[in-house]
From TrEMBL:
Top-level taxonomy: Bacteria, Bacillati, Actinomycetota, Actinomycetes, Kitasatosporales
Naturally occurring in which organism (per UniProt): Streptomyces hokutonensis
Protein name per the record: DUF4307 domain-containing protein
Domain of life per record: Bacteria
One Pfam family, short name: DUF4307
InterPro entries recorded: DUF4307
Keywords, comma-separated and alphabetical: Membrane, Transmembrane, Transmembrane helix
TM stretches of this protein: 25-45
Length: 132
């Protein structure tokens, strides 16, 4: 006596619904992966392109109504922009804030900036630099 096979004859009934679903999932996964790769590339490109300005506070000197900040800025030639500086009092309250604007062809700017304050400042902090 022989046993009957439970397998369907190959090619007779087409692909199973599981195979079609697997194929659709693979296509959807490939499309989503490509979109994610494009998105990451876009943000990486703009992060690198926009990062043309770097700056640091070298030293500062505080008095009762002003803080003199020695600021050094490195930038690409021809880039114009601004850096925002602030000073805080001993109790962490902000006593002064100002933007330092720059431009021109120099790639390095070394300047002492005077920041007017409403009380004696104990810090000089560079909040960030941005291109115009």
């Amino acid at each position: 006596m022989s046993t009957a096979s439970t397998r369907l004859p190959e090619g007779r009934y087409g692909r199973s619904s599981d195979e079609r679903a697997d194929h659709k999932l693979k296509v959807a996964g490939a499309v989503l992966a490509a979109a994610l790769l494009v998105l990451v590339g876009y943000f990486a490109y703009h992060y690198v392109v926009e990062a043309r300005i770097s700056a640091e506070v070298i030293t500062f000197q505080a008095s009762d109504n002003e803080v003199k900040v020695h600021l050094e800025v490195h930038k690409d030639s021809g880039t114009s922009g601004y850096c925002t500086l602030r000073s805080q009092a001993a109790d962490q309250s902000e006593v002064g804030r100002a933007d330092f604007h720059f431009g021109g062809s120099a790639t390095r700017i070394d300047r002492v900036v005077t920041l007017r304050t409403t009380a004696r400042g104990t810090t000089a902090e560079l909040l960030g630099c941005h291109s115009d």
